[in-house]
């Protein structure tokens, strides 16, 4: 953020020199807005630090931050020096998500980690709205959502897990029997592998004998309760 810091070998003397442990809130806001991060790694580092300074910010500061452009956005897996207003991010996604941005790419680019995201949430970033769109698409056309994930089981699983995190905010719905979800299949060596399967092929059954003899498609363990809504 462009701040001068004391040399490592002099840090034990910082108090004697009158060096502050952290910049004040005005300096932090100025540093962020005048020198915003240019890539994901730097953004994550800065946002995580700013999250530790939340108590120093006032309501007026949070309102100001909502109108500043400091969040790097990813296009086609490349970070460009383009920044968006926190409270405009969702509107931008809603308008262009199906035209310019692969859903799974964008999910990665706005996810800077738990602590960094806490700071961004205070700035007005609303992640739940993004996943609400993914949730609607899941029930409208799970295969389209699967295609947006480039038919990658890891990416699709990530989105299902994120939808599950906020699912209690959405009304209950049912999937069609031919909709697709991530399932687990045990191979001949006893290893569990993620794969794609239709709703009608996935079973929630804890009977070990049944599982051993029939080896059905089963839900990922952390999504069992989520799947129970529509299996």
UniProtKB/TrEMBL annotation:
Query: Where is the chain membrane-spanning?
Result: 79-101
What Pfam families is this protein classified in?
DUF3684 (PF12449)
**Protein's organism:** Rhizophagus irregularis (strain DAOM 181602 / DAOM 197198 / MUCL 43194) (Arbuscular mycorrhizal fungus)
Read off the PANTHER family from this record.
DOMAIN PROTEIN, PUTATIVE (AFU_ORTHOLOGUE AFUA_6G04830)-RELATED
| Record's protein name | Uncharacterized protein
**What keyword terms does UniProt attach to this protein?**
Membrane, Transmembrane, Transmembrane helix
């Amino acid at each position: 953020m462009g701040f001068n810091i004391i040399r490592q070998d002099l840090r034990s003397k910082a108090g004697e020199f009158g060096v502050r442990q952290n910049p004040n809130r005005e300096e932090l806001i100025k540093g962020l807005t005048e020198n915003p991060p240019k890539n994901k790694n730097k953004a994550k580092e800065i946002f995580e630090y700013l999250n530790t300074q939340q108590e120093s910010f006032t309501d007026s500061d949070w309102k100001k931050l909502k109108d500043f452009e400091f969040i790097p956005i990813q296009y086609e897996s490349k970070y460009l020096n383009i920044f968006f207003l926190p409270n405009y991010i969702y509107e931008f996604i809603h308008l262009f998500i199906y035209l310019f941005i692969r859903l799974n790419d964008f999910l990665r680019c706005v996810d800077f980690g738990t602590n960094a995201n806490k700071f961004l949430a205070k700035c007005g970033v609303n992640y739940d709205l993004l996943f609400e769109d993914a949730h609607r698409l899941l029930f409208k056309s799970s295969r389209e959502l699967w295609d947006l994930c480039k038919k990658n089981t890891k990416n699709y699983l990530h989105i299902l897990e994120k939808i599950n995190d906020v699912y209690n905010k959405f009304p209950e719905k049912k999937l069609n029997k031919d909709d697709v979800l991530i399932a687990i299949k045990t191979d001949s060596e006893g290893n569990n592998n993620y794969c794609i399967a239709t709703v009608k092929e996935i079973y929630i059954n804890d009977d070990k004998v049944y599982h051993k003899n029939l080896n059905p498609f089963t839900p990922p363990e952390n999504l069992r309760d989520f799947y129970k809504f529509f299996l």
